[in-house]
Amino acid sequence: MNGRKRVGDDKLLNLILLCIPLSLVSFGGGQTIVASLQHQTVDILHLLSGPQFTDLYAISRAAPGPGTLIVALIGWEVSGLWGAVLATLAIFIPSSILLCILGSYWQRHRHSAWAIAAEKGLAPVAVGLIFTGVFAVGQSARFTPLELATSLGAIAVLLTTKTGPYPLLGVVGVSYFLLSLAGMA
């Protein structure tokens, strides 16, 4: 080539072009786009490895803020501070503009039959997209048998007891630390 960059070679531009349409279809919040974000950034654009995506996802869920925080972390990983800023703008600005344009119309007609039907129809779509995101992150994590057993055990404890997540995290963290000292994890 003659020294010119092709658009397909620019990882940051590809990330921005990915975030804009995802912004417009994120019904139900940032969790609903996780599966698409994982598929595109790991499998299609090769911006991240599966474990990198899983790590960024875990950080984004542990930190306070919106579910779309993962986009800023991916942007940071791809292109530093500018990547974080531009990816964040690309995920928030399109949906914000759409919301401003359609928001007043929706408010005027929110009790109409079509608006009620749309809300009822979009709720299960959002739930399905969230579960798809959980599945995608699980696949990217490439769990070992010990990690899978720990996750399933934690789910069982949380669903069947009144134990909160923080004591459970402490117990699991100490257990993994002790296993690592013994050379078993």
From TrEMBL:
Keywords: Cell membrane, Membrane, Transmembrane, Transmembrane helix. Pfam families: Chromate_transp. InterPro entries: CHR_Transporter, Chromate_transpt. This is Chromate transporter. It comes from the Bacteria. The chain crosses the membrane at residues 12-34, 81-102, 122-144, 164-184. Belongs to the chromate ion transporter (CHR) (TC 2.A.51) family. It comes from Sinorhizobium terangae. GO terms for molecular function: chromate transmembrane transporter activity. It is a multi-pass membrane protein. Coiled coil: none annotated. One of its GO terms (cellular component) is plasma membrane. It is found in: Cell membrane. Signal peptide: none annotated.
